[in-house]
Design goal:
This protein is an alpha+beta fold and 221 residues long. It has helices at residues 55-91, 151-164, 166-174, 178-196, 200-212, and strands at 3-4, 7-12, 15-20, 23-24, 124-130, 133-138, 144-148. Helices cover 42% and strands 15% of the residues. The strands form three sheets. A three-stranded antiparallel β-sheet has the order 5-6-7. It has a two-stranded antiparallel ribbon with strand order 1-4. Strands 2-3 form a two-stranded antiparallel ribbon. The longest helix is centred in the first third of the chain and has 37 residues, at 55-91.
């Protein structure tokens, strides 16, 4: 059977959102047949005492014994598997580092304007497809903004921003997108660092440390 991947594009506030819906019409049918024995009626052989052996009863008893053994064996395996899984789950999270949230990292939502007087609107340009979304940079003020690439995530982000405000809603969304959260935190810190550090060599050194830090959101205990 074939697979279809219809694609559609929907414009939302000047940003192009790609909707991808995949469907599969494959169906798999398995036919299970039990053992079938065709026996012709033949004279029943004696067992030496003039009595015919009850082969049907023996066959049924043997099958029952096999099923009982298989069932107990399966239960044993399932019990061992459950114990193993429980022990594995018990070890989870013990040595995991505590992560800083997007708010603790100082991430903010850039809003609609470049200046505080709200006279110059942003001119967003997409610079890269990254972390299942798009990274934009304003042509005028050079701020960055990451947005999700899937329509369902865009709707969820919009709901969070309506309920909690632009900054808090954006941070709440990024808390479940660690890679995007790290990206935005580093870019905004580099922007602040550029304004504070005058020496270019010192800035380059600090920027390299920030960009290469894979545990940038780790909370110090």
């Amino acid at each position: 059977m074939g697979k279809e991947f219809p694609l559609a594009r929907k414009e939302e506030e000047g940003q192009s959102v790609l909707l991808a819906i995949s469907s599969s019409g494959e169906h798999f049918t398995a036919l299970c047949n039990g053992d079938q024995r065709a026996q012709e009626s033949t004279p029943t052989e004696g067992n030496g005492r003039g009595e015919a052996e009850d082969t049907e009863t023996k066959s049924q008893g043997s099958c029952k014994a096999e099923r009982a053994n298989a069932s107990s064996s399966k239960e044993d395996r399932r019990g061992r598997g459950n114990k193993d899984r429980k022990s594995d789950r018990g070890d989870e999270g013990k040595d995991k580092p505590i992560r800083r949230s997007a708010s603790e990292l100082g991430i903010t939502f850039p809003g609609n304007y470049c200046d505080e007087l709200e006279t110059v609107p942003h001119y967003w340009i997409e610079v890269e497809k990254v972390h299942k979304g798009s990274l934009f940079q304003c042509k005028l003020c050079h701020r960055h903004l990451w947005t999700p690439g899937y329509w369902a995530d865009v709707e969820r982000l919009a709901v969070l921003m309506r309920q909690h405000g632009n900054i808090e809603g954006y941070c709440l969304f990024l808390n479940r997108r660690r890679a995007a959260k790290m990206l935005m935190a580093k870019l905004q810190d580099l922007r602040r660092l550029e304004k504070e550090v005058v020496d270019k060599r010192e800035f380059a050194k600090l920027a390299d440390e920030i960009l290469s830090d894979k545990e940038y959101d780790r909370k110090e205990e």
